[in-house]
Structure formats: C-alpha cells, structure tokens
C-alpha cells in the first residue's frame, strides 16, 4: 500500500523513526511510503533458515542481518530486505547507509509483484551487487539469483527449484537447496 505524505512533502527516514511497532513493514522509496502486511510464518521460517545458512557460510568481512534492519542510502529511501549481507565496515549500529552486497527478498502472496519488479529495480539503482528472490512455496520452492552488470541492470546467474543445488561463490561461497528453506514447514 502506498501512502502520500499529509504534509504535502515526500516522506523522509525521520518520519519513519516514529512509525508504530505494529508488525507491518514500513519502507520508503524516493519519498513514497510503502506499507506491507506482516508476513506469515512460512515466510519467516524461510528467512530464519536462509539467514542461518548464510551466517554459517559468511566470511569475517561481511555480516548477515535479517529484517527489519534498515538500508538507508539517502534521506528519502529506506528498504528492509528480508535478509541482507553487508560489509562489516559499512554498517552503523542503527542502519546501513550504503548498498548491501546482497539483498534477499522472500516472496509472500502480498509481496510478489513488489519484490519481483519494484524492489529488484531499486536495488539495481542503489548498486546492490547481488539480489536473490526466494519463493517458499511448499509445492515447488525456488531460489533465483542475479548479479549487477554494468552498474545498471541484473543478469540472472542461478535459478533452482526443490532439491536442485543452489551454489554461488560471491559474496562468499554458499551451497544449499530451496527445499532446505522450507523443510520444517512441510507436514
């Protein structure tokens, strides 16, 4: 849901500092407020499992952080990827003022269009080197990965489903399957 500023001006990150702790995700894209419903437990379980596996594989140069940690590259943009990987030296205690190396969005029914188009385009514009989409669909879970090429657009470098092995070398070596991320969700 997009909300316009009642003050006749774009929203800023300072406006978000007073947002309620109501379980919704509040993000800003060029001063436009985007509000998303709280995700369901399949989404959150996939986030936890992915963040855990990335944390295990992570090198000392990077940190793996799950949402709601904020990426704040300017006063009118704040994104909260489901999982991000950032250079340790780029982090502040409260947010990441630079582009992360990796942004991961886990798709929910209410976020599919936003995650696959809008957020992917914004991450490319910000210079996020790697972007992953995780679809925790119980019948056919999927992981797709893109790498920024030429500083302006993404090129897909991997796409796996179910038990196919997802393996990338950057930002650090990771090997997993999409079914790993939903293993605890299946009856």
Automatic annotation (TrEMBL):
InterPro entries: Nuclease_put_TT1808 (IPR012296), Restrct_endonuc-II-like (IPR011335), Uma2 (IPR008538). It holds the Pfam family Uma2. One of its GO terms (molecular function) is endonuclease activity. Keywords: Endonuclease, Hydrolase, Nuclease. Coiled coil: none annotated. Gene3D superfamilies: tt1808, chain A (3.90.1570.10). This is Uma2 family endonuclease. It comes from Saccharopolyspora gloriosae. The lineage of its organism: Bacteria, Bacillati, Actinomycetota, Actinomycetes, Pseudonocardiales.
